[in-house]
Design brief:
single chain, Immunoglobulin-like, TIM Barrel, 8-stranded parallel beta barrel, alpha+beta, 4 domains
């Protein structure tokens, strides 16, 4: 009988580690025998004896490779018996190869006459299916059958639509209850998985223009709840999926809001912060709690707290699909933020309950890796973890018809997984956007194997958030005293050209891989950062710096990225990390949209110019080096000339003047030919008419201007 004083772990298929308390005996040698169902299976060979605190460790070789899925015991020569537990064997390459399952039928596959359940649990000695009807009444448990590669399966021959279920899994002599890692729908707060007839949700027809390159995108990040919760949002379904389906909404003063506002603004894609099921919000208490959503609980199922009926699993599916359809109808793409680097809590996750120790990364010291800062890192390099990630992105693409992914802390994912993810995504949707955070974080993975910015050359067609760009513009996120370009730091012409053109040794990302941003959901908003760093300034000066920073992100070579509300000076009232702050901190303040129409118009103009001329959207460094060069018009400005670019758009020559001076400055524009201006201090568009015949010009402080020459006959 297991006493709890002794421990034995299967650490390889034929290796058993035994821990014996120092107090047990003083014999120099112990005799260990392996038993199965009371039958002696063979003697263990002791290969090494190690003294550790309170215990003697015996590393032994078994007489054969010990099959998993059965309960074994160890007995010493005195007849002391104790259980053999599954140990580090689950993290060996041999285990990964032996138990890899590549079928596409995991989870609950529903048909009217039957439902087939499959769960991967190779270390389990017993698995049962627990069924609960749609009214919450438990119907009992049914034993499941062990199949190949450790997949347990069961077919229930009845109509289980809208039933709930969980798995009871016995591992290491302990029963644990877990939800289905592949569940497409879950009950309120993710307590149970749900059986849903997925065939009832039809694909919608939409035909967004094909995205020729990621640089053709302008990405707008927002949070489902933040977007509509404010009292002046003009949307009725405040904080819900359904708000995105409301059309022609307006603020109290008659300004456009909601999805129509984004359409008018000129962005091409909305990036939604996590919409899969996450912890940290009690879905039964509507609107009382807040969380960004980076506490993943189920990777395939939508979150319920944004639903009008969180207790109805199918409702959130319907509402999210309607959200995506509405966005598509307005001509915009949808990117979703996915978190495959960690889970909310390792110990209570369905992964750890079903296959303890497998899904998470461990260091050489045997402790869980924690590069995420959340107590755990998913081991993406293992076969079944990789399979789950690839299956999830495939499902979101095919079922929800989204247009791309943003990978949270992508640097924690291994390169081979991300390569397979990229291949899968682009085989389904060739123009899908794939971007992520390529920070190099301290996880138990070699630097060469991480999907980091420094390894960006190893993985094409994946974009990286350019923190060098961000910090150069506004100063370091982690040092409020550090200044950037818009807060007074001097840049040479060479330094500035590297910044806006994304060339040079300090900028390893090519244009199609560089996500250019100055603000996102993390850290201070740009407005709050400017208040902290330049607190003595007037609001007008601060607005100019803010607008100037955003203009640089829009016109630089790469993929422009805006945080929602950035275009009208969003504040979170000085809170740096607002992941669980109240609504009044996080909500998008639509009053600011009413108060800053001039700035919105200016940025709208810049986005229209970017989209209208390919010189702002070069695909390669070669194109940039061929057509772009810096001019020295004044010490108070940096001037970027795009020459011989008629094949890319309406104008043969483009001159972008970034005036970083704090006083008006007069400049003489280059060359003999006069210039026209298509964007100035107040914003213009070519369609509104171009101010021509400009040779000498006075630049307003902290403003970006766009001048043009030689209107071409065709717009290509």
């Amino acid at each position: 009988m297991y006493t709890g004083r002794f421990s034995a772990f299967l650490d390889a298929l034929d290796q058993i580690t035994i821990l014996i308390p120092h107090s047990y005996r003083v014999n120099e040698k112990l005799f260990f025998m392996l038993f199965f169902e009371g039958q002696r299976m063979g003697e263990l060979r002791v290969d090494e004896v190690i003294q550790i605190e309170h215990y003697t460790k015996y590393i032994c070789t078994a007489p054969f490779e010990v099959p998993l899925g059965e309960e074994y015991q160890i007995e010493d020569d005195k007849g002391m018996a104790f259980a053999l537990q599954t140990g580090a064997v689950i993290r060996t390459p041999e285990f990964d190869e032996m138990y890899q399952y590549d079928g596409e039928d995991m989870g609950a596959i529903y048909e009217k006459e039957k439902t087939v359940f499959k769960v991967w649990a190779p270390t389990a000695t017993n698995v049962k299916l627990k069924l609960i009807n749609e009214f919450g009444t438990e119907k009992g448990t049914i034993p499941m059958h062990r199949g190949e590669q450790g997949v347990w399966h069961l077919t229930v021959h009845q109509n289980l639509e809208n039933h709930f279920y969980s798995y009871l899994v016995r591992v290491n002599y302990i029963w644990r209850e877990a939800t289905d890692p592949y569940a497409k729908a879950v009950s309120v707060n993710g307590q149970y998985s749900a059986v849903i007839d997925m065939s009832q949700y039809k694909k919608h027809d939409y035909s967004l223009p094909k995205l020729e390159s990621p640089v053709d995108a302008i990405i707008y990040e927002t949070h489902v709840r933040d977007f509509s919760h404010h009292h002046n949002s003009g949307m009725n379904a405040k904080g819900k999926y359904a708000a995105f389906s409301e059309t022609a909404t307006k603020t109290t003063k008659g300004y456009s809001s909601g999805i129509q506002y984004l359409q008018e603004l000129g962005v091409t894609h909305i990036e939604l912060m996590p919409v899969n099921d996450f912890a940290g919000v009690d879905e039964t208490v509507i609107g009382k709690e807040y969380n960004w959503g980076y506490n993943p609980r189920h990777f395939f199922a939508p979150a319920g707290n944004y639903s009008a009926k969180p207790h109805v699993p199918g409702k959130r599916i319907e509402e999210l699909k309607e959200l995506i359809e509405s966005v598509h109808q307005h001509g915009l793409g949808v990117i979703i933020d996915v978190v495959f680097n960690h889970v909310f809590q390792k110990e209570i996750s369905n992964f750890e309950k079903i296959v303890p120790g497998y899904y998470f990364r461990y260091g050489a010291n045997g402790m869980p890796s924690n590069g995420s800062g959340c107590g755990n890192d998913l081991a993406s390099e293992r076969f079944m973890v990789r399979k789950l990630i690839v299956s999830a992105v495939k499902y979101w693409l095919e079922f929800y018809q989204i247009d791309g992914f943003r990978f949270d802390l992508m640097g924690l994912l291994d390169l081979e997984t991300m390569k397979e993810v990229e291949k899968t995504i682009h085989s389904i949707k060739p123009d899908a956007i794939i971007i992520g955070e390529g920070w190099d974080l301290p996880t138990a993975l070699s630097g060469a194997d991480k999907t980091t910015i420094s390894n960006s050359h190893k993985i094409e067609n994946v974009g990286f958030f350019n923190d060098k760009f961000r910090d150069s513009i506004k100063g370091s996120n982690f040092n409020l005293k550090d200044t950037g370009y818009v807060t007074g730091k001097e840049f040479s012409h060479e330094e500035f050209s590297q910044l806006v053109l994304n060339i040079g040794e300090d900028y390893p990302l090519g244009p199609e891989q560089s996500v250019n941003f100055v603000e996102c959901h993390d850290n201070h908003t740009l407005w709050d950062r400017l208040q902290l760093a330049n607190g003595a300034e007037s609001n007008e000066s601060r607005k100019r710096r803010h607008r100037f920073a955003t203009s640089i992100a829009i016109l630089s070579q790469g993929i422009p990225f805006l945080h929602s509300g950035q275009e009208f000076f969003r504040t979170k009232h000085g809170i740096e990390n607002s992941y669980c702050s109240p609504d009044w901190i996080n909500e998008l303040n639509w009053d600011l949209r009413e108060q800053n129409e001039e700035t919105i118009s200016y940025l709208r103009c810049l986005m229209a110019i970017r989209k209208s001329h390919g010189a702002f959207r070069f695909r390669s460094r070669e194109e940039i080096e061929t057509h772009a060069k810096m001019l020295d018009l004044s010490p108070a400005c940096h001037s970027l000339l795009y020459d011989d670019v008629g094949e890319y758009g309406r104008w043969e020559r483009l001159l972008v003047v970034y005036h970083h001076g704090e006083q008006p400055t007069e400049v003489e524009l280059p060359g003999e030919q006069e210039w026209g201006m298509i964007c100035g201090d107040c914003g213009y568009t070519a369609e509104q008419g171009v101010e021509m015949d400009i040779k000498h010009f006075t630049l307003e402080p902290l403003t970006t201007y766009v001048f043009v020459q030689n209107n071409c006959c065709s717009n290509t």
